[in-house]
Amino acid sequence: MFSRHLIRLASASLLLAFVPARGDESNLWPFFVRHTDPTTGTATAEGLGPLLFARARPGEEQQGLRPVYMTTRTAEVTEGNILYPFFTWRQQADYRTFSFFQLVNTRADTTDAAHPDHRFDVWPFYFSRQTDDPALNYRALFPLVGEIRQRFGRDRLSFVVFPLYLQTEKGGRQVTHAPWPFLRFIAGDGHTGFGFWPLYGQSARAGDYEHRFWLWPLGFKSVTNLADPEPEVKLGLLPFYSRDTGPGYIRENYAWPFFGYTHRTAPYRYDERRYLWPLLVQGRGDDRVVNRWAPLYTHSVIKGTDKTWLLWPLYRHQRWDADGVAQEKNQVLFFLWWSLEQRSLAHPAAAPAHKTHLWPLFSSWDNGAGQRQVQALSPLEVFFPGNPTVRQLWTPLFALYRYDRKSADTVRHALLWNAVTWQRTATTREFHLGPLASVQTDTRQQRLALGSGLIGLRRKPGERTWRLFLFDFPTAAASKADQATTP
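The structure corresponding to this sequence follows.
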């Protein structure tokens, strides 16, 4: 706990202890680098190379020690982790969670103060829930004894010295195993059944369904929707034959699963032939086509999604529309080369957005509206595309080079974890070689400095001569003075 607070204090100090006086960056690499995004006002800081970090933007603060620890705070929520994904937590006024690799989990929900809800799990051994409703409370010590309610897709599960006894209930249907999985008894709400797995089993409910199996999984027959004019029937004598029938379709397999066909007339039309499945498949129907000659070539169009494989798994191409966006994805060996292009269906002439990974060399992003990013190296982004925690904790550790373009006028380059940086905006230019040398140009002055301001030269607009300065370090006081006296 002490170490966590120490890291928090040290990372927060990155944003508070130093304020860039001239320009948008202070660079004392590798001890400290602070940068302010001129377009968004987001302040980021790093210390000890990329290890210690902090970021502040309107409504949110982040800080941590890569890849060990990170916290994210907003006005309502605090989230944190240690050795992600092992230790994670979330705190807000009326809701708290903690998890160790999803194996040890706690949750306290006091959203309704009159009805608090507390849960604690130690997978797969202990499960508990405590509320003011006795019908929802439970404690279970697996495999010895216990009862679990409203979880795992069941209304209730109870067991005693599992697998000697297990009972599940859902929608009034009770299934008792004694012992699991060999003996099974079904009862409740019109359901009846018995099973001696894997030799024989049956279950039924009048007007609803009938199921049977023998020598599972070799023989089975299942009839559902008995009240309908044409029930759904599944029959199998594996590996010789299987058949599925229902309203508007039939599917048969011979020498299962290698040869077969499907004929469907409702709710859509579709016909398919299978030879040495899954290698050779031919299908045609409403809004769907399948041509599979695996592993050489596969092309399918299903509900508007167009997918092509060449020399599986060498190359994959996919096109589809979703949420008003036309999307096109290309992959070589799944992740070695990965690219995604997105175009607006409402504005087809607009520039597309791109995301590309050449693993593990680089990743690039382009939002189509003038913002671009490139990073080299990038070994993790292709595997965790939607994980902001990995992006903050792990991705910067590999950032030998980063390119960040906010607009045509605002561009920043960073080399070797900000050891060398160069940035330009519409009104400023900045170059930093760590704390050794810097060049800054803006509307107020041109400035060349060594030792982060130990000695240098500067001149104001309209002046021809350079003026020598000594010990002009970037401090908050100096920054305010400059702004107050500069016309």
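The chain has three helices and 45 strands.
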